[in-house]
Amino acid sequence: MDTDEAAFDRAMRRLRAFMAVLTVAGALAAAGLRGWDWGIGFLAGAAVSLVNFSWLHQLVASLGPGGRRPSRWLFALLSLRYLLLGLAGYVIVRYFGLNLTAAILGLFVAAAAVIVEIFYELVHGRA
Q1: Which of 37, 40, 68, 101 is least enclosed, having the fewest CB within 10 Å?
Q2: Which of 60, 31, 55, 54 is nearest to 43 (CA)?
């Protein structure tokens, strides 16, 4: 394995760890500050964010050298993700009574983890 691929693998492991920490910390903070409906709403939004990140990672991995062609199922899910996101939000609010604002905040978990990884690389990166 060359150094670029190894560095990418380490970054992906850190990214997943950052997402897990942000999910747990965000859910605990939301529940502690606003109540269980905010905490579970944040968890639901974070779960959607993590699934979306996983789908995008699978697509990008399939585009690289030696990657296998993505399945039609993955392509369909990625194509419909905003519709699925809207449906998930509707179900979260309408049927489970969770807080929409908390769920929307949870959707930013993957983006926040990427920002944390950028700062990590800026501080600990090797030139």
Answers
A1: 68
A2: 31
In sequence order, what DSSP letters do the residues of the chain get, joined into one string?
A: --HHHHHHHHHHHHHHHHHHHHHHHHHHHHHHHH-HHHHHHHHHHHHHHHHHHHHHHHHHHHHSTTPPPPPHHHHHHHHTHHHHHHHHHHHHHHTT---HHHHHHHTTHHHHHHHHHHHHHHHH---
Structure tokens at 14: 């850190």
Residue closest to 44 by CA, chosen among 60, 55, 31: 31
Q: Report the amino acid identity of residue 63.
A: L
- The reply to whether the predicted model has a pTM over 0.90 is no
